[in-house]
């Protein structure tokens, strides 16, 4: 109890120092505070370091921090909070890492999205295999969590969970929240309002154009086609940004 009070207090102090703490909509005050604190956790510092090599000069298999190579993405890294279906924080901090080849494809896709007035908002990116074990321990059910022994393409640095938001930060309606396990999240669910179908179509067609494929039951999940044979990784990022 004492710890969570301190975390809330720290969150509020950080929010009061921030000009634009929330991009979210309405809700009651208590809920809003919780969401704002989560948003604070998800503030990913953006900006390339000049000493970094360019993506073109690196091996495709290298892991990179996406925000170091593009400032045009938005982040809502749910597994770095308790706002996910596990109801548990499994990352020490919110970061989005991918392999170089995945990053190149994501940047190209995002350039296309920007022409349509939107951008990618990430829920999850590369996931170390040890985190997959953590998730499996909480929910040992292959219907919801990939078995860590076999691994997921997230563990290979080639899968991302994403949605779209406008360039002003307004999230597009995709019909369900991230990690909604049910028919409404399926790509073949067509009994949905037209604007939702249009939003999903824009997401899917653009990602496919840039070498990603989708899975039938999750509108948010995209795999880079060339990543399926890559090895499972357990590279861990530093929480210092
Ligand atoms: Zn996924």
TrEMBL record:
Pfam families in UniProt: Peptidase_M15
Entry-linked InterPro entries: A_A_dipeptidase, Zn_M74/Hedgehog-like
Active-site residues annotated for this sequence: 218
Keyword presence, Metal-binding: yes
Sequence positions that bind Zn(2+): 154, 161, 221
Site positions for Transition state stabilizer: 127
Listed GO MF terms: D-Ala-D-Ala dipeptidase activity; metallopeptidase activity; zinc ion binding
Enzyme Commission number: 3.4.13.22
Cofactor: Zn(2+)
Catalysed transformations (reactions): D-alanyl-D-alanine + H2O = 2 D-alanine
Gene Ontology BP term (one): cell wall organization
Top-tier EC class: hydrolase
Cofactor descriptive note: Binds 1 zinc ion per subunit.
Coiled-coil intervals: none
Keywords linked to the UniProt accession: Cell wall biogenesis/degradation, Dipeptidase, Hydrolase, Metal-binding, Metalloprotease, Protease, Zinc
Keyword field contains Metal-binding: yes
HAMAP family: A_A_dipeptidase
Family affiliation: Belongs to the peptidase M15D family.
Function of the protein: Catalyzes hydrolysis of the D-alanyl-D-alanine dipeptide.
Protein name: D-alanyl-D-alanine dipeptidase
Organism: Aggregatimonas sangjinii
